[in-house]
Specification:
- This protein is mainly α and 306 residues long.
- The protein has 3 domains: 62-145, Orthogonal Bundle (Fumarate Reductase Iron-sulfur Protein, Chain B, domain 2), CATH 1.10.1060; 150-246, FAD/NAD(P)-binding domain (3-Layer(bba) Sandwich), CATH 3.50.50.60; 254-306, no CATH class.
- It has 16 helices and 4 strands.
- Strands 3-2-1-4 form a 4-stranded parallel sheet.
- Helix 5 packs antiparallel against helix 6 (83-93), helix 6 (83-93) crosses helix 9 and helix 7 packs across helix 9.
């Protein structure tokens, strides 16, 4: 940002600005909020234009991340060897860093300004590196996370579903001091992570590690329970839970709505992947046609080829 004189409006040189937000963080208005209303100064202009603060001064990698992770901070910590500190920054916003280190589509890298010169920073690979460090130093990370937990609130919450949404919810709530129980219809937690994503793309030990961290924080997992069959929501509430969170996932395939899709030999993607990932064989012969080109389609094609 270049400015001429105290009362001039700020001029952003988009070719030079790196969205580092140093100018915002160094501004006295960060510490003296009353200064934000001074409309005749640069700082007043910035702080009275909320969209400018959010969009112009947020680093592109952070703005592109669905979780809003402080990418710049943990990458900087990793660059100087402070892996544990970087992990605590990562886990502040991301309850499943191991999973994201393998299957995230990394929009942060697509937005990385370094790509304007050569290649973007390999943010996902750096997160994966940090998680492998965490696997080898698990006890230290768990103790650090426990120190960050809020005091017990005396409230019990049950989460129905142990997929990504349920696991993320469990992590966030247990860190806030709630007593958490997670119920799931499957014999093991993970949901689509273990059911739909093949192990050659997402190693099972990585999923187990992320879940193990959540379990170590005090979350109880109850497997093989189908709500509505073995147990009703009314019975759950009578068991002295203060709240119920439904995180049941999206297990149904999208139908094409065309004739013949229900005929023999026409398999639905999620049914196919769930069956194979559960260890059951599906006999395929001849040429296999996969309709679609997303991650699920590619996983299906690679699984069928194997």
């Amino acid at each position: 940002m270049t400015v001429e004189g105290r009362t001039y409006k700020p001029v952003v040189d988009r070719d030079l600005c790196q969205r580092c937000s140093v100018c915002v963080r160094a501004c006295p208005a960060e510490y003296l909020p009353d200064l934000r209303h001074d409309k005749d100064t640069v700082r007043g202009y910035v702080y009275t234009n909320i969209d400018l603060v959010v969009t112009e001064f947020l680093p592109p990698c952070v703005a592109a991340c669905p979780l809003g992770q402080d990418v710049r901070e943990y990458v900087q910590l990793l660059s100087v060897g402070k892996v544990q500190d970087a992990l605590l920054i990562i886990r502040k916003d991301n309850p499943l860093p191991g999973v994201c280190g393998y299957v995230c589509h990394h929009p942060c890298e697509q937005a990385c300004v370094r790509g304007s010169w050569d290649d973007p920073v390999a943010i996902r690979e750096l997160k994966r590196y940090a998680v492998h460090y965490e696997i080898d130093h698990q006890e230290e990370i768990i103790e650090a996370l426990k120190e960050r937990k809020h005091s017990a609130r005396g409230k019990k919450v049950v989460i129905v579903g142990a997929g990504p949404a349920g696991l993320a919810c469990a992590f966030e709530l247990v860190m806030q001091g709630y007593t958490i129980t997670v119920m799931d219809a499957l014999a093991q937690p993970g949901g689509m992570l273990v059911g739909a994503i093949p192990p050659f793309r997402l190693p099972r030990y990585v999923i187990e590690h992320d879940i193990g961290i959540i379990r170590s924080l005090g979350v109880e997992f109850i497997p093989s329970v189908r709500i509505g069959k073995e147990l009703t929501l009314q019975e759950i509430r009578r068991d002295r839970f203060d709240a119920v969170v439904l995180a049941i996932g999206t297990w149904k395939d999208i139908a094409l709505g065309i004739p013949g899709e229900d005929t023999s030999g026409c398999l639905k993607c999620l049914d196919f992947l769930n069956t194979v990932n559960a260890g059951h064989a599906i006999n395929l012969s001849g040429t296999v046609l996969v309709i679609g080109g997303g991650n699920a389609a590619i996983d299906t094609a690679r699984t069928a080829l194997r």
